[in-house]
Amino acid sequence: MKMNYLKSLKAAGLTCMVLAILSSCSKDVNYGEAGKTQVLVNVGVDNSAPSPLKNSARKSVQATNTIEIPFSKDITLVASLNPVNNTAKTGLRASTKKAASTTNEFPLATGSTYTVLAYQNDELITSKDFTVGGDNRLQLEAGEYTFVTYSSGSNSTIGIPTGTLSLAKFEELAADVDLMYASKTQPILEGVTNDLNVVLKHLFTELTINFNTAALGDATIQSGTFSPSFSTASVLVKDGSVEGIGAEQAVSITFPTGSTTGQQFSSTPVKVIANTSEGVINLQNVSIGGVTKDVTLSGLTIVPNTRYVLDLALKTGSGDASADVGENSWSLGNLTFSRITNTYSFASGSSEGAYFFPDRVIPKNTEPGSTNQGPDESNGSIGDPCALIAPANTWRLPLSSEITALNAATNAGGSSNPGPGSWEPARWVDYYNDDQTGLVGVFYGTQSLPAVEDRDKYLFVPFLGAYHDNFDLSNLGSQGYYLLKDDEKGYANGYATWHLTGQPGQLNWGSEVIEIDNTSAVQVVCVKNN
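Below the sequence we write its predicted structure tokens.
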């Protein structure tokens, strides 16, 4: 009897030990609350993929835009707009193994709050606010969930959207909320600790302007704006798509006060709600080298979920890129166009420009395989391509009467004819390069070949030929054709051609205005608006 009693005690003790071990094991596998298992949330930040803006038909194309802006006669402002994608090399992926949050190179700042929403079958099952550096555990029953995680990157929480997953929205969020978002569907397994690894993405856009004044010295920017930006946005919880709300407006950009000498200064980063290929940055009261003016950069591509840095630098010596001859200031280079950045600039005096059709702002595409024989929709709208050099409307196409005046000014006895020949024009035909390679053209305002160091100070009009309703470039190196607005000949299409001829090493006697048809594509030299 005693033996049986002892056996019973031993059996009971063994049962208790087993139960105790199982209980301990259940804690090790983190069942947590009854019927639930534990989820560890690991969160980081990424800045890579853009998000579509629902009410915009504009393309979300991301590119580097670089333009040169004549600021004064001796100073050029070089502006480069660059997207900065800080892709987080997190190594985080759905796993039942614990992943340390330190694997994220771009962690959410300690003390920041974030919220996790867990949905099943379109319904919100649970939600929880977390603080980085604090408890990151979440209790859930086993099953598959869609997890939505979001944060403002600060210690402020954003309210939980109401409704089903497919319909819920974050409403009327201002850009400075800096909403970061992630969504993923993941099974939660019973009996193990589950890791929910989250990489948040900024849904709005951040813009910073850096101004490097080292090339010159003192410089200031009083203030600036970016447009267009929506004042608020709504964001769909299910996929993070952004919809701008209300009228588009300009957002202020602030800069340090006082001048800087030989260093770089930056604006305060500004958040915007934008998705546009027509972005505009206006800089007010830019002071460089004793000159103060406003500067406008237009046609900028700005998309969501991206940080942009606008780098401004100074270049001396080419400023207005113009030469005063006759009654006008002429560009020291032919007009060019970048199909990558959709920007206009001037080629150097020894380089060719683009070939433009009359009354079209985008030049003929002369690349191999092009079908742009005559003007079509790829050549843009009607307008003056010179006016699109930044800052806008600084330049324009020459008038036919201005070529007549230019010829008169450089003829014998003209205001721009320094001699020495009293009966000869001040128009010299020659190679731009001393080794008689490269372009041939006319140097205006001289009766001889200028010294090498002075050539970039003269209006040089190279003989670059023309396209006449085909892809055969005619008269390259022997004749020049330049687009004009006709104000004296009465040509039907309102345009004319400045036609130049001559032999290297001789004076130019061939400079005239002739008719141009709409299928011809010619070079463009611009004049400054008075």
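Helices lie at 2-28, 400-410.
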